[in-house]
Write a structure and sequence with these properties.
The chain contains 3 helices and 11 strands, in the order βαβαββββαβββββ. The chain is mostly beta strands.
């Protein structure tokens, strides 16, 4: 299964629309997971013209999306033997602050500490965590947990620049995340 991962579209605000190139990048995905800060349902409808969409919204910020069946505070998706947890703002116990590339590697020792997040965060053990909030792309392994922040297609590193998305391919016993830098495609 191939999944398109996107977050922090911030429309309106970060941009007036999702960059059209996202449609090309996600043309063959089976599902799109959005990790919040959508702001408006029209973004979900646009993405759903590509593939089914599930959103883990920052419900305080995604007020216009309340009541939409595609939007929950957290999402759990099970595919090909893997459990994916999606949340907007990931809080790792014992780590104060936003998660950027490499920021956990200095403080998190999975061999001595156990899982990156407690099972109760998602209600079960997850193999992949997709989150947003920082607008900075990240793909890192922590023990047996794959951590992915797809960044933002509209606010690269919190700046109004075309940014990134991620594709995640999952098959039984295998998972591969690929960062797509949208600026390189236009």
């Amino acid at each position: 299964m191939k999944i398109g991962l996107i977050s922090d579209t911030h429309i309106p605000g970060g941009a007036t629309e999702v960059p059209e190139i996202v449609k090309d990048v996600f043309h063959d995905v089976d599902l799109i997971l959005h990790a919040g800060n959508v702001y408006t349902i029209s973004v979900l409808d646009w993405l759903e013209s590509i593939a089914p969409v599930k959103v883990a919204g920052a419900l305080d910020r995604d007020k216009m999306c309340h009541g939409d069946p595609r939007v929950e505070e957290k999402q759990i998706v099970e595919v090909e033997g893997s459990v994916i947890g999606v949340i907007h703002d990931l809080m790792v116990p014992g780590f104060g602050g936003w998660i950027y590339p490499g920021s956990l590697s200095n403080v998190y020792d999975h061999k001595n500490r156990g899982p990156l997040v407690p099972d109760q965060m998602f209600g079960k053990k997850v193999d992949v965590i997709v989150f947003g909030h920082t607008c900075t792309v990240l793909v890192e392994e922590y023990g047996d947990t794959l951590l992915i922040n797809p960044g933002s297609p509209t606010l690269r590193d919190q700046l109004r620049k075309i940014g990134t998305v991620v594709t995640l391919e999952i098959s039984e016993g295998k998972r591969e995340a690929k960062i797509i830098d949208l600026a390189n495609l236009i």
